[in-house]
């Protein structure tokens, strides 16, 4: 197994130095966390499935003209991505009331919202990713007004793309979280989609039954998380042949 220098480790992924300047290798783990890592566990095969789902969605989104950090999938658990400076603002788009939104706004889960709502959260595990406004973002210099406009515009376009795509396979897109980064190329700086898009960062409900096909099955101890992730991949036509298989990550250089 190759030895690579680890650049960053998050709750669901590890980033390693890439084979070429300006690239990183993104490795998907089976680790599952909820409530800002207060709850921890493992969803067997999740890393393999998320790698494939994120590859599929990033590719479709790029085909619609939205720039992303995705370059190509390398193997079952790894993909090559462009190195970016992550903007520490999580952008959440909500179509149906669910999760923390229901408690915060007093709206019953499953209520269709009057229109898609965009929310910002400060990316900080120590502070439990607090809800923030555009004023916070600009006052603390996390992003400038142009970058905010670009993130909101891209997030809403992604919502349109994914809502239609998943509706076609019998899945309702309830909400999702995306992250963006600054990609430096010479003197040019461009805001592009980064991180991942998967059942870890989206809420998916079956259109007919409202069965949850995402990480809420882990969050709420509902069981069947592995099967839910696989079902999303199956409906998209990308479930790895023979199902997800284990693959260890590269050895880390100290």
Task: Please explain how this structure is put together.
The structure is a single chain. The mean pLDDT is about 95. Strands 8, 9, 10, 11, 12, 13 and 14 form a seven-stranded antiparallel sheet that branches. This protein has a six-stranded mixed sheet with strand order 6-7-3-2-1-15. It folds into two domains: about 5-85 and about 225-245, Phosphorylase Kinase, domain 1 (2-Layer Sandwich), CATH 3.30.200.20; about 85-205, ATP-grasp fold, B domain (D-amino Acid Aminotransferase, Chain A, domain 1, 2-Layer Sandwich). It is globular. The longest helix is centred in the middle third of the chain and has 23 residues, at about 145-165. About 25% of the residues lie in helices and about 35% in strands. With about 250 residues, it is α+β, with helices and mostly antiparallel strands. A hairpin with a 4-residue loop joins β6 (about 70-75) and β7. The protein contains six helices and 15 strands.
